[in-house]
Amino acid sequence: MYTDVDSLIKIVIDEVIRQLKFFEEKDMSSYAIMAVFTGGRTGLEEALKQLKYMETNGAQLTIVPSRNALRIIGEERLKKEIPGAKLIYEYTESILQETKNADIILFPVLTQNTLAKIALGICDTLPLQIASWGIMMGKKMLAARNAADPGDSRKMELGLGRAPKVYRDQIYGYFDRLKEFEIHFCDVREMLDKTHQMLENKRKTTLHNGHALTHKDVITYTSSGVKEILIRKDSIITPLAVETAEKNQIILTRKEG
User: Fold this and answer.
1) Is 134 in contact with 99 (CB distance < 8 Å)?
2) Which is nearest to 244 in space by CA: 211, 210, 219?
3) Under 8 Å between Cβ of 253 and 229
4) β-sheet bridge partners, residue 161
5) Which of 22-26, 100-104, 226-230 has the highest mean pLDDT?
6) Can you say whether the dihedral through the CA atoms of 63, 198, 141, 193 is positive or negative?
7) For the chain, how big is the Rg over CA atoms in Å?
8) Which are the contacts of 238, defined by CB distance < 8 A and separation ≥ 6?
9) Nearest in space to 181 (alpha carbons), one of 127, 141, 125
10) Which ranges carry the Flavoprotein domain (predicted)?
11) With pLDDT > 70 as the criterion, what percentage of the chain qualifies?
12) pTM for the structure as a whole
């Protein structure tokens, strides 16, 4: 049976492990990351820290703050904290292409207001438009849940943890809807690690350009850690290739177009 001391020791050990993982070098030099900030304060300091390490690890960052977020953070601080990032404050002709180019879209600070609007399909600000585009493009998307979560510890500290169950259920219903949109959530302290994990998983998908996919091709891809092979719709897949893929738990997907 755990004592209070045992529980405290476990918490300390878990935090030390998390910090060690955080400071591990993670090569993100080949990735374009778009980070969209909305106007909350919960988790903001940690979010900036996480993005700073992404930049340190080589990520190409584009930051899109809402008007409220820009007012809270400040333009000068953004430039100072993450000097290599491209900052976008308002709609431009290139913003759609910027969104297309992003390997992942992050919401390091996601307010309850933005959470609800995304769930309801409302697009009345640039951050909401980017969220909508990301969903429709099938982009990898990750949001820190802290600012929107009615059960977050910071909200408890501020005396905001007494909402009726029906209110909390409504907010958590919005979380569930976004998950159905394939938006992932994490604690803001885990954003760097989770982002790296999601991007590395992307690397495990490869496009086979040949006119035929053979079992030898599948074996070669398997040895490289590939988990999904995209095949042109006019390519032939041999029966042995299918069998080898199934044996190695490789997904074969026909690429449209």
Assistant:
1) yes
2) 219
3) yes
4) none
5) 100-104
6) negative
7) 21
8) 212, 213, 214, 215
9) 141
10) 33-135
11) 89
12) 0.73
Q: Could you tell me the two tokens for 245?
A: 């893929």
Residue 20 is predicted with a pLDDT of 47
Six token digits for residue 110: 């996601």
The domain segmentation of the chain, as residue ranges, is: 25-202, 204-255
Beta strands in the chain (DSSP E): 32-37, 60-65, 86-87, 104-109, 140-144, 183-186, 205-208, 212-213, 228-232, 236-237, 251-255
What's the CA angle centered on 242, arms 103 and 236, to 5 degrees?
A: 80
How far apart are the C-alpha atoms of 240 and 97, rounded to whole Å? 41
The 3-state DSSP class for residue 178 equals: helix
Task: Out of 3.30.1120.10, 3.30.450.40, 3.40.50.1950, 3.40.50.300, select the CATH number for domain 25-202.
Answer: 3.40.50.1950
What single letter denotes the amino acid at residue 201? N
* C-beta of residue 67 within 8 angstroms of C-beta of residue 96: no
Distance CA 228, CA 255 (A): 12
Max Cα-Cα span within the chain: 64
Given a contact cutoff of 8 angstroms between Cβ atoms, the answer to whether 137 and 181 are in contact is no
Q: Distance (Å, rounded) from C-alpha 73 to C-alpha 48?
A: 10
Helix runs in the chain, H state only: 4-22, 44-56, 67-73, 75-81, 95-101, 112-119, 126-137, 153-157, 165-180, 191-203, 215-223, 239-247
Q: Which of 224, 188, 175, 184 is nearest to 203 (CA)?
A: 224
For 171, other C-beta atoms within 10 Å of its C-beta total: 17
pLDDT score recorded for residue 22:
47
